[in-house]
Amino acid sequence: MRVLVTGAKGFIGKNLLMHFQEAGDIEVVPFTREHSIDQLTDMLEGIDWVFHLAGINRPQNKEEFASGNTGLTHQLCAAIKACDRPVPVVYTSSIQVERDNDYGNSKRAAEDALLELQKETGNPVFIYRLPNVFGKWARPNYNSAVATFCHNVARGLPVQINDPDAIIRLVYVDDVVDSFISLIEAVDTQSPFVEVAPEYQITVGELADQLNRFKDTRDNLITEPVGTGLIRALYSTYVSYLPPDSFTYAVPQHGDSRGVFVEMLKTPDAGQFSFFTAHPGITRGGHYHHSKTEKFLVIKGRACFRFRHMFTGEFYELYTSGEQSVIVETVPGWTHDVTNVGDDELICMLWANEIFDREKPDTFACPVEA
Question: What kind of fold does domain 2-130 have according to CATH?
Fold first, then answer.
């Protein structure tokens, strides 16, 4: 399949081209600012789909709206007519068409040109009236508040907020691209207008607060719920704006004669992750919990885990090593410890179901004795 992409070097264009490259069976013909409009007809030779992403939204003068949005679209329609065959067109319009401004009017006129092409020739047309699109590779200080805020927060720069209660409508660039690709896989010509789902809403103030919480994670180690929805998409976007010298950060390391203990990540409602080391012959633990539970995974070395029931006195021990990838789970009401029974350093990963609370640690010293 051969696909022509106008605006191929833009924000959405770069993300779309990356997905096409991953597909492996799609040849992309990019149309960029380096090309002239006169080249469009020749570039459409053998093209199966057109993704018309090019546009002007920050011109030096308002006349560029007409030439860059409406004019280019008219030329594209003329070039498709000259092909004398259907070439489906996907066009990224804007919700600004609902407003009476120069940008919105130019996008509306571009839509009208495509709809007229469809009416006259039956050529398939798909129009996306997009709200603010966010994600990796958007240019900061251009036309995306998300990109600008991510760039600034990631670098410790101030964020300018005029109206913290102003609502931003957002769609994530990966969802936009997924919708584009679904059109290719299953064309639905019932309506020329296509919507991207999900669409999110957030206030400017909430956006800034959320990004600052992402930044604070490196200090307090408490992660935000970044696994789903808007928070997932915003976090992926935020970290994409980190400069390379910020790809790493240090966390506190607590060491003594036994080894070291390091907390890696904490969650508001699913516990925390850490690891510890123990020198040969060293025993760690020797305590019990009423409610707290833990999971241990030996990464390196050989360990003996011992348990004793606090009421019945029942005793149990087991051995594991870094070669086995076995999870050892502690159980409330059983005192427990772990001993390095190997000749090398023991490294053990640890998950606890709650963040450690110094005021209420639910940890009570009690040696394990067989």
Answer: Rossmann fold (3.40.50)
SS3 content of the chain, % helix, strand, coil (to 5): 30, 30, 40
Q: Each residue's pLDDT tens digit in the chain (370 positions)?
A: 999 999 999 999 999 999 999 988 999 999 988 888 888 889 999 999 999 998 766 666 766 666 667 889 999 999 999 988 999 999 999 999 998 888 888 999 999 999 999 999 999 999 999 999 999 999 999 889 999 999 999 999 999 999 999 999 999 999 999 999 999 987 665 689 999 999 999 999 999 999 999 999 999 999 999 999 999 999 999 999 999 999 999 999 999 999 999 999 999 999 999 999 999 999 999 999 999 999 999 999 999 999 999 999 999 999 999 999 999 999 999 999 999 999 999 999 999 999 999 999 999 999 998 6
Q: Which residues contact 69 (CB under 8 A, 6 or more apart)?
A: 55, 56, 103, 106, 107, 109, 110
CATH fold group of domain 133-171+199-249? Rossmann fold (3.40.50)
DSSP 139: P
pTM over cut 0.90: yes
Distance of CA 234 to the CA centre of its chain: 6
The segment(s) of the chain belonging to CATH 3.40.50.720 are: 2-130, 133-171+199-249
Sheet holding 27-31, edge to edge: 27-31, 2-6, 49-52, 89-94, 125-130, 193-194
- Say if CB 294 and CB 351 are below 8 A apart: yes
Residue intervals of the chain classified under CATH 2.60.120.10 are 253-365
Q: Is 172 a catalytic residue?
A: no
Fold for 253-365, please state it: Jelly Rolls (2.60.120)
- Is residue 9 helix, strand or coil? coil
Q: Could you say which of 103, 128, 238, 241 is catalytic?
A: 103
